[in-house]
Amino acid sequence: MSDWDTVTILRKKPPKASALKTEQAVNAARRQGLPVDTQQKFGAGTNKQHVTTKNTAKLDRETEELRHEKIPLDLGKLIMQGRQAKGMSQKDLATKICEKPQIVNDYEAGRGIPNNVVLGKIERAIGIKLRGKDRGQPLQPPGGQK
């Protein structure tokens, strides 16, 4: 035989996964004695979108209200007094500390979520200590105490 008459198959693609799952393929595998693994998917073929999970009862038993910690109202008053003593509006203070005016408004009203970075900026801008035990005292310049 010459080389022109021989056929060389370089690569034969294996059957796709979907072809292996057909009833015909499963029956053929059973006849050959190969192990066949079958699984039923949870909720397959049903329209169950709102299925109760095992954690639902645990959530129902939970009595504590989960909320973010808020700025205390006395801290909001301190910010307001310090800002007014410097003659600044909420917008001026917000511009000075590079934050949105809404954040200053929320902090003064006691609605803001405490953020030490923002509180530190406000402390430096109004010159009043807002964190720690000596809250409301004038802020010492860095290196002032020895």
From TrEMBL:
UniProt-recorded Gene Ontology molecular function terms: DNA binding
Matches recorded under Pfam families: HTH_3 (PF01381), MBF1 (PF08523)
Biased composition (Polar residues): 37-56
Domain HTH cro/C1-type residues, every copy: 83-133
Domain of life: Eukaryota
Gene3D superfamilies: lambda repressor-like DNA-binding domains (1.10.260.40)
InterPro entries xrefs: Cro/C1-type_HTH, Lambda_DNA-bd_dom_sf, MBF1_N
Protein keywords: DNA-binding, Transcription, Transcription regulation
PROSITE patterns xref list: HTH_CROC1 (PS50943)
Signal peptide range: none
Region ranges (Disordered): 29-61
One Gene Ontology cellular component: nucleus
Family annotation (CDD domains): HTH_XRE
A Gene Ontology biological process term: regulation of transcription by RNA polymerase II
Protein name, as recorded: HTH cro/C1-type domain-containing protein
Species of the source: Euphydryas editha
